[in-house]
Amino acid sequence: xxxxxxxxxxxxxxxxxxxxxxxxxxxxxxxxxxxxxxxxxxxxxxxxxxxxxxxxxxxxxxxxxxxxxxxxxxxxxxxxxxxxxxxxxxxxxxxxxxxxxxxxxxxxxxxxxxxxxxxxxxxxxxxxxxxxxxxxxxxxxxxxxxxxxxxxxxxxxxxxxxxxxxxxxxxxxxxxxxxxxxxxxxxxxxxxxxxxxxxxxxxxxxxxxxxxxxxxxxxxxxxxxxxxxxxxxxxxxxxxxxxxxxxxxxxxxxxxxxxxxxxxxxxxxxxxxxxxxxxxxxxxxxxxxxxxxxxxxxxxxxxxxxxxxxxxxxxxxxxxxxxxxxxxxxxxx
Length: 333
Hints:
Elements: H1 18-22, H2 31-34, H3 67-70, H4 81-90, E1 96-98, H5 104-113, E2 119-125, E3 131-136, H6 141-149, H7 156-165, E4 170-177, H8 187-201, H9 221-230, H10 233-240, H11 250-262, H12 270-279, E5 283-287, E6 292-296, H13 299-306, H14 310-318, E7 323-324, E8 328-332
Antiparallel strand pairs: 1-4, 2-3, 2-4, 5-6, 5-8, 7-8
């Protein structure tokens, strides 16, 4: 992406200012060519006006000759001054910027624009300029947005900040797009990208210092005391004697039996049964005189043959002598 920091190419630059070499900024005289009108490989148009320049200043869009000269019609809504100054200070060019998050139209736009995309996002508190950085797998940007800022299922710090400063004082930014569909194979690369942003920008809303890991997190002294109180010896003793010596009434026992009898048995398809058989291990049963009682393709079949539970056979396989019901010796084939 021409206008996105190439954090993944960090190893190419071993000397000099980190941001100066990673973020290629354009001169204000070339603003016409560099204003947001590029397309990503997915054909999505850039939605920000945060193009940076070589003299460390933003282009003054109020002094442009005319909108016709620069074809700015699709970009009537500019970033706020606070957001523009923040991007300039951090030397970032975001792929998408969203403000007025309290509006339904903004939320719908986020959902539409970020569909099937993955990458790195930033949540900015425009009052305190504190921010949170995270990563989103394919088609998960909107889920991250709603979890953190709408439903409060994400960062607890972000939740408390939104409740204090209100949602309209926050901005949601897409910093960089991940060029592939995220899966188990390349997920580590996405986490590495997030980890680099965390270590480079040092967001103070992030508790954890490493992406995808709780390493480095320290509980407060109050939290430690609460955890100790919850798992004190006194509490353990109370739990231990809670049902000690108690017996179930005949009526309760009958109800449990009735529920067990009418419980629906799992109905597996033929394909499911075949798949289970493929993953199962074959066992062999010996009589106590070491003669072979039978070979079975699975523990379930062996259990049916000798009239016991499959759990009984699994327990026998874990013992040293592998005795089963005092009549057989069971072993894996």
